Amino acid sequence: QLQLVESGGGLVQPGGSLRLSCAASGYSLNYFAVAWFRQAPGKEYEGVSYISAGALTTYYADSVKGRFTISKDSNKNTVYLQMNSLKPEDAAVYYCTATTQPVSAHSGWYDFDYWGHGTQVTVSS
Fold it and tell me: pLDDT of 44-83, one tens digit each?
């Protein structure tokens, strides 16, 4: 089935930028809504952003709105999360997730059937 592999995490200073990649294989992401969740130590999964299967709809959590951008390159079957103006509170393991089901701002981590293994983002001086 669908496999997801995240990359692009690392250590950045506050105010810096990272671009996370979610490379998919097995199926075209054209059939999946893709969401980024993050989890800081001891905290619940937090929905960061999603993009609809047709890439006509995007969503951003209030905490990242205006700083993060989600996009899809269909030719590469890859979804990206461009993260700018990073803050210490953005530090977490970021997971790429996908589902064939409709998604909304009310969707939670349990609504996504496919998960990557995550990539660590550290924001520190």
Answer: 999 999 999 999 999 999 999 999 999 999 999 999 999 9
The secondary element (H helix, E strand) that includes residue 47 is: strand 46-51
- Cα-Cα-Cα-Cα dihedral sign, residues 85, 89, 95, 99: negative
Q: CA 33, CA 45: separation in Å to the nearest integer?
A: 18
CB 15 within 8 A of CB 123: no
10 Å CB burial of residue 81 (0-12, 13-18, 19+) is buried
Which residue matches tokens 């490379």?
23
Q: Decide if 123 contacts 90 (C-beta within 8 A).
A: yes
pLDDT of res. 61:
98
